[in-house]
Write a structure and sequence with these properties.
361 residues; alpha/beta; Aspartate Aminotransferase, domain 2; Aspartate Aminotransferase, domain 1; 2 domains; 7-stranded mixed sheet; 12 strands; globular; binds pyridoxal-5'-phosphate; DegT/DnrJ/EryC1/StrS family aminotransferase; DegT/StrS_aminotransferase; transferase; PyrdxlP-dep_Trfase_major; pyridoxal phosphate binding
């Protein structure tokens, strides 16, 4: 069976270095907000060509605290793509704000910038865009709208570590960008983790306080903060893996290129463009008989995933909020998309076998 993902195989090449780092961590005897966290924060900021990095507990908190830093009036509106992972929308709701869903482009699966302006009202305060599956949004278009309406921009980079648009890294366009280090992400920890990037020193300081009970000086609290710190031990492991992130991305890109070059035309493939360097957190194809295809691949020893089976507006938790609205493009993507094996540990031979079976379907 070719698994869709296997975290043991994914991390095995790093075990020796993890063990050394873990020994260092034990020797330090410091578990929360120590020098291993500071070091990872500096390394991750530098890797992204960003000025500041603040480690937090997970990707959802990175998004939630980024919005919280602006103290928007309750009921303010935030624009967000209708086909994102639910976390992006939850971060808006958790701040007492209103998510305004905008449909994606059916080719890039990222927010359709041509539809954004018609959703902007006097209550719109921020754009929360998502670089889905590891492809950057059209940032020239997004930045033009941001400037025209003077909106805050927060980038959800949970799937886009290292993706670029016209050579500029995802996560360096907005006031804030939010990263997740969930184990399966391109840069994954051995547990939960996340980070916020920003170039603004004042905003960085505010996030650093919000993640730590709104406090800078111990036992003096300036904001209604949270406990959302990136554990020292996870930062220690992430520093090891960060050194291999370019290699991890390059391997996924090589497998993606095999799919793109060899799959028959029945499948709707991810679009490519020289302005975009995609990191293929997820390599998806679309097919009208997606469920049948998934079963067929499974019967042939190939496991796949669906990102995602249910559109956010149809989730039990959110149904009431979006009851009177329709999102046919998001629903079409959710109905037809299938994610293929494309991990750091998959071999070209395995992917060639997947291609052979796909072409015989
Ligand atoms: C994974 C993910 C998140 C949430 O990250 P967690 O670390 O699991 O909280 C947010 N947005 C997107 C697009 C994601 O893929």
């Amino acid at each position: 069976m070719i698994a869709y993902e296997n975290l043991f195989e994914l991390n095995k090449p790093f075990h020796d270095e993890f063990k050394t780092q873990f020994d260092n961590f034990l020797q330090n005897g410091w578990y929360i907000m120590g020098k291993m966290l500071s070091q990872f924060e500096q390394e991750f900021a530098a890797w992204n060509t960003s000025k500041q990095c603040i480690g937090v507990a997970n990707g959802l908190d990175a998004l939630t605290l980024s919005l919280k830093a602006f103290d928007f009036e309750p009921g303010s509106e935030v624009i967000v793509p209708s086909n994102t992972y639910i976390a992006t929308i939850l971060s808006i709701l958790n701040n007492g704000l209103v998510p305004v869903l905008v449909e994606p482009d059916i080719q890039t699966y990222n927010i359709d910038h041509a539809l954004i302006e018609q959703h902007i009202t006097p209550k719109t305060k921020a754009l929360m865009i998502v670089h889905l599956y590891g492809k950057c949004c059209d940032m020239d278009a997004v930045m033009a709208i941001k400037r025209k309406y003077n909106l805050v921009l927060i980038e959800d980079c949970a799937q886009a570590h290292g993706a670029t648009y016209k050579g500029k890294k995802a996560g360096t366009f907005g006031e804030f960008s939010a990263f997740s280090f969930y184990p399966t992400k391109n840069l994954g920890a051995l547990g939960d983790g996340g980070a916020v990037l920003t170039d603004d020193t004042g905003l960085a300081q505010k996030i650093a306080m919000l993640r730590n009970y709104g406090s800078q000086k111990k036992y003096y609290n300036e904001y209604v903060g949270a406990n959302s710190r990136l554990d020292e031990v996870q930062a220690a492991f992430l520093s090891v893996k960060l050194r291999y992130l370019d290699e991890i991305n390059a391997h996924k890109q090589k497998l993606a290129a095999l799919y793109l070059e060899n799959l028959k035309s029945d499948y709707i493939l991810p679009v490519t463009d020289t302005d975009y360097n995609d990191v293929y957190h997820i390599f998806n194809v679309r097919h009208p008989k997606r469920n049948e295809l998934k079963q067929y691949l499974f019967d042939n020893g190939i496991d796949t995933e669906i990102h995602y089976p249910v559109a956010p507006n149809q989730q039990q938790a959110l149904k009431n909020i979006f009851a009177n609205k329709q999102f046919p493009i998001a629903e079409e993507i959710h109905r037809t998309t299938l994610s293929l094996p494309c991990s750091r540990w998959h071999t070209q031979e395995q992917v060639s076998y997947v291609i052979e079976k796909l072409n015989a379907f």
